[in-house]
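Hello,

I think I submitted the fe (ii) ion job twice by accident. Can you confirm which output corresponds to this input? Input:
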Amino acid sequence: MAFGVISEIGYICIHSSNIEQSLGHARDILGLVETDRTGNAVFLSSRAKRHHELVYIDAQRDAVGQVGLIAAGPTGLREARRRVQDAGYPILTDLPLHPGVEDGFSFAGPEGFIFEIYIGPQKSDVVPAGHAPDRFGHVNLHPKNVEAMRHFFVDVLDFRVSDIIGDDFAYFLRCNTEHHGIALIRGAGWLHHHAWQVQSIAELGKVADRLCDHGMRLLMGPVRHGAGHNMAAYYVEPSGAVVELYTDLEHIYDDERPPVIWPAEDQKWATRWALYDFTEFRSHGLFPAGEAVSAE
Ligand SMILES: [Fe+2]
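Support: Only one job matched these inputs. Its output is below.
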């Protein structure tokens, strides 16, 4: 149940300089199926069977395109549009960027990240792959100015803060009962990972096996996070973005629950079972494309 203008995290759009390799990964490793194709865009979904949860754009260079946020109905969409305009973020399109949704608009948010806010994601009747994740769940952004990005999500789009790490280092933000739909960790100014919900820790082992069979490997995990309590495993997809598969994420049913505050030196916010060196983990990501690309 949404408490603000955004009800759900909808999709991630990635510009790929090698779209066949990206699509092969989405099919063979992540387990998505193609639902539609229009010109330079390929639309993919999981067991959630939506028109799109992941969009790959055939592009000159690898980059992150829009982050899609589903508004809480027509009222939420109208209010979000008004607030985004009032806050001075440039509107890029006043119509949906892609087929398969009812209404929406896109704009350039902080640090050049592009967002589309929309309503009415259509269902797709494709048959999911046997190894499909349940659904798209969240994005993890590494903004340079994490406090400004927190302000944007909380004060403009009604997100609530679930966990705070250190002094202005990281925030986990929710728009519904799920512990986080957006995670912000101070960093290079890029998307670090997009995350997909699976049914159990066994699925984390299975994705590791699929990676191994294709000559790839996990980047990290399986781990148990402290912030969010999810078990997760990570790998790097061909575009350079990190992909997370997770299960057992905390749900917060008290909308007024105060944020959990973690001291920066307490690494259990990140991993509870063992300590890791995160240098390589945080060295991957995708910078914003700097423009909204709609399907041609
Ligand atoms: Fe994550």
